[in-house]
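Follow-up to my post from last week.
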Amino acid sequence: MKYVTQRLISIIPTLFIVSLIIFGLMRVLPGDVAQLILMGPEGEGGAARAEDIAKLRGELGLDDPLIIQYFSWMAGVITLNPGDSLWTGRPILEELFNRFPLTLELGILATIVSLIIAIPTGIISAVKQGTPLDYFARVFAIVGLSVPSFWVAVLILLVMVTYLDYFPPLGYMDFHEDPVKNIQQLIWAALSLGYIQAALVSRMMRSSLLEVLREDYIRTAHSKGQTERRVIVKHALKNAMLPVITIVGIGLANIIGGTVVIETVFNLPGVGRYLIDAIGRRDYPVVQTLVFFFAMIFALANLLVDLVYVQLDPRIRLA
Amino acid sequence: MVSSSGEINAADLEILKRAERQSRLGPKIRKFCTRNPLGAAAGVVLIIMIVLALGASFFATHHPYEIDGLQTFAAPSSLHFFGTDELGRDVFSRIIFGTRISLRVGFIAVGISIIAGTIIGAVSAYAGGWVDYVLQRIVDALFAFPTIVLALAIVSVLGTGINQVITAVGIVNVPRVARVVRASTLSVLAMPYIEAAYCMGAAPVRVIARHILPNVFAPVIILATAGFGTAILAEASLSFLGVGTPPPEPSWGTMLSGAASQYIRNAPWMAIFPGVAISIAVFAFNLFGDALRDTLDPRLRGSN
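User reply:
Got it. Predicted complex:
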């Protein structure tokens, strides 16, 4: 328990610096935010009156000293009211909560899919090291790391549109309303998102298992007459899993970031899409809050992974 | 070799020096190729890419911006090897010119991240104390962002355009380099020969240049090749999302966005070829980087 609270507390300084970085980035703008919003990045929105610009600046609080701006934003974040979107005028958090379940589900599905693919592949690759099966699996893994996820998504769309007469659904089906349709919609997106993770995890599973299989206690188990399967499942896997979990944790960032691209391709109304749309519309309060949100989710996810790690390997807790 | 007086004369010294210089590169490349055939093949692909980029005008069949309203969505043919896009532009030529963009982004972005990361990592390790603590917390914070999200945040501030993309991609890679360089430097600093050098009166600059940097070299090279692949993917993703290299520049990522997805049923070649180009480029860098790592640091072989 103490370890948990310790880790939770250690996130705070990181998140603090994260917020500083985001805030600093947004204020580093060479131009005037209000002017950019009213007139568009190239001034294509037409000339804006000076009064309008001044009014918008006042609304955005841009004339306040930087410290006040930062604290008012952070205060908003902590009290769960980070302001309103410039585009819709509605509270950012409202939209965020509407969209979050979809992105969360997508991320979880992608992780599950990647594990289903990667772990058996990695195990087979390690156990049958040197065979064509191993070679094939390794090539598959390296290819997986190189292929852009949005391209795979586009190709999957191509196949579905051409051969399966699939059209992107008009309405998003909530999981509670209709689980089957929901999974149907998301599974392809999850696949596009998860396969890169699968490649990484598969490689790590393979190398980790190979290392464990060389250990003495494995040889002992063999000489005691254990079957191959029992040796692997009962002894090797548990120890080989640890680095794999680390990789899954690191890969969570890629999955979280990847939702941004995948939701765009598959036209899913998730948090990732929200960020892209906000950037396109120069909706800076939303961009600011969402980027912080992503960083926070990532930090929490890593924390979760660390806790799972500690459960599996008690030696770490004592270290 | 050694003359009767026990001293090596000048001519022999020259022969020795030349032999040492020769033994540096040629045989090493040959050894690399025989031990890592895949890596060597990847290296060839990379060289081809560089050649294509430098001589793009020579290899391309059409001008990459040339619009031909009569030939829109043309299927691959002997005139247009990879077909044409929605404006009748030749996809093959655009892909060849796109090599320039990818390599340019890769080189400069990796350059930025390596230089900045090395400075931060080395200073952090060397200075220690609160400097180290503060710098490491900043690096941790940068690590807390998913790559694309951080790149998007930077680009949303700087605006779209290839230089902004390069900056964003460069910055995004800095934390990883900084961490690796710091770890490397720390392990080198712990070595007795560093202390010995100081005892002999070496100035810190000399210690850094002569002892620390060469030992940090190997991991940095590996980071550079890996970073290249990441940079190309990041630029493609940003361009795909519409915030990267703006049209009509033939960035492979831009070529995959917009019309390519819309008309994918009728003109699949628009979506297939740019993606293949990206994949091959990143694949080659990954393979080459892996082979390089196996050669430079066999202890890391088999791990990731």
